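Async update (no meeting this week)

Hi team, since we skipped the sync, here's where things stand on the single-chain job. The sequence we agreed to prioritize is pasted below, unchanged from the tracker. I ran it this morning and attached the output directly underneath so nobody has to dig for it. Comments welcome in thread, and please keep replies under the output.
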Amino acid sequence: TSSLSQIIGAVLIAGFVAVFASSCATETVSYANDAEELVFTNGADARSTKASTSDILVKAYTFDANSASAAKFYFGDFYTQSGSLYISNTSKFWPESMYASENSRLSVFAVTPSTIILNDESYLNSSSNNLPTFDYTVALDAAAQEDVKVAKTVAQSVESQVVLTMGSVLSTINVNLKGTQAGQGTTVYTINSVKLCGAYADGEYDFNSNHMQIAEGAETYDFTLPVSAEWNAKEVSSDDTFTPASEYAFHMIPQSAVASEIVVDYTVEYNGYVIFSGSHVEKLNGLWSQSNTCSYDIELNHGGERIDYNPFVAE
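Output:
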């Protein structure tokens, strides 16, 4: 009987299988009773982010749906990139207690980057209604920033199929620039630096509300956007359109932008002569909302003023 029970248990083992989402902004993962491993997909965004190469941290918990007892830690694992998928090297097996009662439930939380530390103390010691939280600080250099993505499934029955959809909890900020032609001669722009000034870097995410917000006591900082090589001695024409200032984007804590500004330091040459060297300040407004993208199109004036010289020769 014991052997038969073990065989039945092996047949009923639940695992995980990946389903790729059609949108690059979300990644879908599902688990079903006939799979053996959890596989994540993490598509790249329009502007580069290190999150596309980061591991995914997965933590799972079990609890009895009909009791007030706290959740029990089931497993924690890192899922590493394998081609376009994320996969663990270890298989997950449901503990026997999961089959002891139809009231047994499973909750899974996934985050990337995997360096995030989940605060699950209340979840383990109080009630299954107190879901984990985590703190996050975005890097001051956009090239080092990572797009934070999360997914969860809460209080799911073992017998059902569950789909996890990972989505960003930050706001993506794109900066696009356009130069203006000074005259019929050759107008050349060189972008020296692009900064996002006066924004908050520290945030707190709560799986209960699915909301990322500015951390209590947070301060504002200035953030640097690496300049694209094409903006080094870039010749512009009258029909130029807005082009990205960088191959990167800012990935920021959701917040109001009314106290922030973008500062572009640049130089303009006309027919080999420097006609402008200075900064353009773009005052911002609106709201950087969670999981949305905000693009700023900034036109940089050439700074030169035409001087008409009409000689007069007196007799």
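Quick observations from my side:
Residues 1-38 have pLDDT under 50 and may be disordered.
The first helix runs from residue 2 to 11.
Reply here if anything looks off.
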